[in-house]
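Predict structure. Chain length: 232.
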Amino acid sequence: MELKDILVQERKKRGWSQEELASKVQVSRQAVSKWETGDALPDLGKLLALADTLGLSLDALCGRESPAEAAAEAPPSPEASTPPKRCHWLLPALCGFLAACLLAGGLWVWSQRNVVPAEAAQAASTLPDTFTVSGVGFSGNSDYEVAYQFTPSVSGEGYAYQITFADPDGQSSTFDAPCSGGACAGTARLSGGWMGYTVTVSVSDGAGSRNVAVARDLNFSQGSTSWTPLDT
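Prediction complete.
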């Protein structure tokens, strides 16, 4: 059996998921997945960690048994009058196999040296923990279009705003909310006016987002608008 097959067999024998094995060896689940599919090989440090975690020798983990282990497993023969012959080829073969494993692992690490994980590549969010909205207002332009305005507590270049209208049936419509000078205003075209919408405003900086409900029971038609403000 190959290393990848032994990993799958031993992990399942212990009832572990890939995440659990990865946690014990202190690697990512993706690394364990690539080892088990043969797309990558662990380096020497990870081979040792795997062997310790699974309670196996490196020989057993890599699909080989050392001469000492083979002799320990085989019961002694009382009829044997001469010592067993040594397999002089086994140790060089084992060393060659391990060297191939390490070489393949080193090549994979080299190929990945400039690959930055998505989590690390993504810039940290600059949004504060608390996001509020003030100056909320609505005006019905028609039975299907309502104008809105609000002032977010977070404003500036690099932020994007959206406003979402959710009807009592759980159907929602989201619109980009253009902002200028720290205030946002625009119009939203919805399926109908007197629907009792719940309105939510959100802000995003590309790395994170915040949202807050600003109104409920929004009903509108041409020349008539009513809603219940929510304390944000």
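Summary: DSSP finds eight helices and nine strands in the chain.
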